[in-house]
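**Fold tokens**
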Amino acid sequence: MKKGIKHIWVFLVVILSFNALAYTPDSLVSIGNRAYNQGLYDSALRIYEKVLAENLHSPQLYYNMGNAYFKNNDIPSAILFFEKAKKLAPLDENIQYNLDVVNSMIVDKIEQVPELFYKKWWNYFYNLFNADLWTIIALVWLTLLLIVLTWFILTKTRSGKRTSFYLGILLLFFTIASFGLASQKYYYSQAHLEAIIFTPSITVKSSPTKSAVDLFVIHEGTKVRLLDRVSGWVEIRIPDGSIGWLPAESMKEI
């Protein structure tokens, strides 16, 4: 019976391949979720990939794909998609929990360089909202700034001028900061600044050549920071601060 259901889902995936335009992204995701719930993880992933092919991305879609890869015992891919989900929803507890679970299953247990307290505060504040919400907040501050500016122009009293002036300076700071956060958040969501290693075991080199000095070994599933690119090589930094070069094909960008 299970085998028969599997054949039905494979047939459905083939039909979807030729008739994807007849389905909305939401309906495709629902079909993928049903396949996942029946344990047909390969079929679910094929359907989720069709949604991605339409250039449609969401934390939930990446989260679902991470879960499907995890069920398929593809740990590097699970980490990659949980990281993609976290990139769009950094404060989601379910994403973070599942990411912690799969990270506990990889070979490398690298101690991270401790962050300074003010950087932790900044990252928490920065991750509170996505780029769209930071833009809305910036527009609210700008509107208040214009109101205060109008007050400054129209008021005749010295106290009113002084109060509106200092309030305007404060609102100007909030406006610029919010637009800056929105811009930075949008850039981060579009840029590929990190990657997951997909080679089972690979030696990091001191320079972008195969004959360079061996520095250290890392394994699949490890997350690295991307620093530079030269002729098919990528300069990377691992969480403990160590730096070296790897072939670009050994990793997939988040």
Remarks:
- The CA atoms of residues 51 and 57 lie 8 Å apart.
